[in-house]
Amino acid sequence: MNSKSRDLYTRNAQAQIASQRLNEFRAGLQSQVEEYEELKALLPEQRELTMVLQNVQEQARNNGLVLGSSSPRTTCSRKTITASE
């Protein structure tokens, strides 16, 4: 009976550790989901990007310019995308 009792005690301790890790994982996941939602709100919709590109192309044509190519940058500071007056 003593051996069975120790086995149950060990399994219980392992289950408590696993439960604690699961709770920590859930908290971390919730934090990541919240951060994702905040960042997602900052990104423009695909249709907005299409409209911006069309406007840039139209402005280029109206000014006698040709837009040869465009590619996304990996990083962009807020200063880069803010229009100056």
Detailed description of the structure:
There is one protein chain. This protein is mainly α and 85 residues long. The chain has three helices and no strands. It has one domain (2-81). Helix content is 73%, strand content 0%. The longest helix is centred in the first third of the chain and has 41 residues, at 2-42. The mean pLDDT is 82.
Figure out the total of helices.
Answer: 3
Strand content: under 5%
Q: Tell me the major beta sheet.
A: none
Shape: rod-shaped
Q: Look at the structure and give the mean pLDDT.
A: 82
Structural class: mainly alpha
Helix and strand succession? HHH
**How many whole angstroms does the radius of gyration measure?**
27 Å
- Total domain modules: 1
Number of strands: 0
Instruction: Give the CA-CA distance, first to last residue.
Output: 83 Å
Topology at a glance:
Elements: H1 2-42, H2 46-62, H3 78-81
Tags for this entry?
85 residues; mainly alpha
